[in-house]
Amino acid sequence: MKIASRMSRLGTETAYAVSDAAKTYAKETGNKVYPFHLGDMNIRTAENIIEAAHKAMLAGRTGYTSAAGVLELKEALAEDMNRTRGTHYTAENISIQSGGKPVIGKFLMTLMEEGDEVLYPSPGYPIYESMIEFLEGVPKPYRYLETEKGYATDMDYFRSLIGKKTTSLIYNNYQNPMGVTSSDEEMAEIARLAVEHDLMVLADEAYFDIVYDGTGKSITSLPGMEERTVILYTFSKRFAMTGWRLGAAIGPKVVIDQINKINTNDEACTTHFIQLAGIEALKGPQEHQAMILRTLKERLDTILEVLADCPGIKVYRPNATFYLFINVTEALQKMGIKTAEEFRQHMLEKTGVSFTHRQHFGKPLAGETEQYIRFAYSGIDVPEIREGLGRFKEYIKTFFS
Ligand code: PLP
Q1: pLDDT in tens, 55-76
Q2: Where are the alpha helices (DSSP H) in 209-266?
Q3: Environment class of 386 (CB within 10 Å of its CB; exposed 0-12, middle 13-18, buried 19+)
Q4: Per-residue model confidence as pLDDT tens digits over 330-386
Q5: What is the mean pLDDT of residues 190-197?
Q6: What is the distance between the alpha carbons of residues 384 and 228, in angstroms, rounded to a whole number?
Q7: Which residues lie with the beta carbon below 6 Å from any ligand 1 atom?
Q8: Which residues, listed in sequence order, are joined to residue 143 by a DSSP beta bridge?
Q9: Among 27, 133, 197, 380, which has the highest number of CB atoms less than 10 A from its own CB?
């Protein structure tokens, strides 16, 4: 059978292979696995949201909706965005999607011509690179610097990448996998460059609500940005609804109209009763959200406490997301291990701790010499964190004594 050649340009999320490898290891050895690999959540969706979906189904809300989504949901979302971002959206600016992920491809399909250059973060969410290449754009990965306190965008490098053919920018504040949060200055400079070079911006705000100290800030709140930005919005992390598949593309009406046209040609609409549950998520009681944040923060505190005296690694405290991006260069040197992939396999076998690493988040860039791993703590409880990372630390310590 001949598969269309374009499929060779489509990437994937290799983190799922890590999860499969961990499952196989557990089954074959009977050993316990500590899952720090996937950004899925083991926190339940709030009861009132589940009830709303159930009631909607029983009430017969099981047919198609308009391609753009249920009006009441779009209105509730516009209100929520304007309150949290200071924007001026109405229902016309919103196209409901089956999760946040589809917004990436639909943004590029709508705005990127073949051969256009697109700036995107690397390490970054792997779907950016995959979809740019699939749709025949030219990937222009920007990078990060390691600072005293964590990571920051390498702005000199960022500026150097912008050329005549650069038309779009993907900006993921509250970044996966590094947990990077832009300073106000950094965000302002990125916005200024977008305006100066007339770039369209995809603001991936998947973790806008997973901020521990303070509240989220959107690049759309800066001058000249609302009119050139499409927000990737998702219910996944904010409301612990990853498997429900509910999100939205939010931006200028001219772009959203085109994205609605893609919906019509593709999924037709997002599941009707799931959309109605989304209204309840936005308008119903909000205590559950606070519980989600408290739970994640307790996990973060635990990891940092356990790893505080682990030799050979550099861990920074991020203020957002549920990821830790850890520099393990020294530990690998001591252990005589060359690559992060080798380290991953080794640590799974020796300790049961399963995690992803830099290579799962886009192709490494020229000149990268340090080795990094990512811990996701959205799917593992505090006792398992203590036990698993206790083993991780004790094992590494044996190489330093
Ligand atoms: N963007 C980022 C940075 C993510 O990490 C994810 C999921 O992990 C998504 C987008 C998509 O999430 P969803 O499709 O569940 O909304």
Answers
A1: 999 999 999 999 999 999 999 9
A2: 253-265
A3: middle
A4: 999 999 999 999 999 999 999 999 999 999 999 999 999 999 999 999 999 999 999
A5: 98
A6: 44
A7: 39, 99-101, 125, 172, 176, 204, 206, 232, 234, 236, 242, 247
A8: none
A9: 380
Q: Which residues pair with 201 in a beta bridge?
A: 169, 229
**pLDDT at residue 306 above 90?**
yes
Phi, psi of 139, rounded to the nearest 5 degrees: -70, 130
Q: What is the pTM of this model?
A: 0.97
- pLDDT for 295 equals 98
Atom of ligand 1 nearest to the CA of 172: 3
SS3 187: helix
Tell me the average pLDDT across 167-185. 97
Pocket test for ligand 1, best of 176, 235, 274, 323 (most atoms within 8 A of CB): 176
Give a three-class secondary structure readout of 51-105.
HHHHHHHHCCCCCCCCCCCCHHHHHHHHHHHHHHHCCCCCHHHEEEECCCCHHHH
Neighbours of 60 (CB within 10 A): 9
96 vs 73: CA distance, rounded Å: 8
Q: Residue 235 CA: which ligand 1 atom is closest?
A: 16
Phi/psi at 22 (nearest 5 deg)? Answer: -65, -40
Q: What pLDDT shows up at residue 324?
A: 98
Give residue 350 CA to ligand 1 midpoint distance, Å: 31
Looking at the CA of residue 204, tell me the nearest atom of ligand 1.
Answer: 1
Q: At what angle do helices 102-111 and 253-265 cross, to 10 degrees?
A: 110
Residue 13 pLDDT: 87
- Pick the residue whose CA is nearest to atom 11 on ligand 1: 101
Distance 102 CA to ligand 1 centre (A): 9
List C-alpha distances in Å: 111 to 56, 66, 84, 115, 170: 36, 23, 26, 12, 12
Q: How many angstroms separate the alpha carbon of residue 101 from the centre of ligand 1?
A: 6
